[in-house]
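Render this sequence as a predicted structure.
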Amino acid sequence: MVGAGISTSAGIPDFRSPGTGLYSNLQGYDLPYPEAIFEISFFKEHPEPFFALARELYPGHFKNIDTLERVAGLQPERLVEAHGSFFTSHCLRPGCRRQYGLPWMRERIFSSLVPKCEQCQGLVKPDIVFFGESLPSRFFTLVQSDFQQVDLLIIMGTSLQVQPFASLVSRVPTNTPRLLINKEKTGQSDPLMSLMGFGCGMDFDSDKAYRDVAWLGDCDKGCLELAELLGWKKELEELVRKEHAAIDAKATQGGNGKAGGSSQDPPPQSGGDSQDPPPQSGGGH
C-alpha cells in the first residue's frame, strides 16, 4: 500500500507535508479552501484551477495519481490505482463518456485550454478520483480477493487519512506482519474506536503489539535498507540504474509526450473495470 510519499524524491509534492505539500501552496488559485481543487462539485463549476495546477506540476503530476509505477515498468495487472491516474481521461457527460489518452490531455493542458470533448463539448477530466466520487470497481473487487492472501503487508509514504484506502491495513489476516516505511508513525488505533470494537489499526508501541513495525525515514532509504537485509541490495541498485538509463534514453528520443499526437482512444487499462466506465477519481493509491 503506497501513497504520495513514495514520489516526493522524484520532485512530486505530497498533499499534507507542512510547507511543501500541495495544500500549503495553493494560495494563488483563488480557492474557497485548499481541498476544493480536488472536489468534483467545485471542478464541474470551476475547472480552471485544477488544470492550472496540472500545468504547473507536469510532467510529475502529483500525489499517488502520478503514474510513476507505470513509468517504472510495473505491469498494469499488478497495480491497483486506488485513486485513479492521469493515464486516461473521460468526458463527464453521462450520455457520452468518450475516452481520451494521455497525449491528448497533455496537449490541452500545455495549451492552457480547459479540455472539452470533441464529440459533445462536455468537460473532460483525467480519471483520478476526486473527493465526492467513487473509487474504481477494480479496487473493491481486488480488496476482497487479495487481502486475505497477504503474508506481509508493506505500507509506504502515506498518512492513512483517506478512507476507504486507510482501512485496508485491517483487511489482512490477524497473523500477517505489517511494515510501515514512512516519515512518521500513522494508522494507529484510536482508543475510542477500540472501545467501540473497531480497534483494528496499527499498534507499534503497546504491550500488546506483536506484528507491526515502523521504520521512520525516507521511503527510498527504507526500501534500500530492506533490500540490503534481504540480500537484494545490489540487484535493486542495478535495476534502478538500468531503468533510469532507459527513461533517460526515451526522453532523449522525444519521449516527453510529443509522440502519439492527440490520440483519443487508448486501449482499456489492463486489468481494469471491463465494461464499466472508469470512475472519476479522488485521492490515494
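Summary. Residues 59-66, 255-285 have pLDDT under 50 and may be disordered. The longest strand covers residues 84-91.
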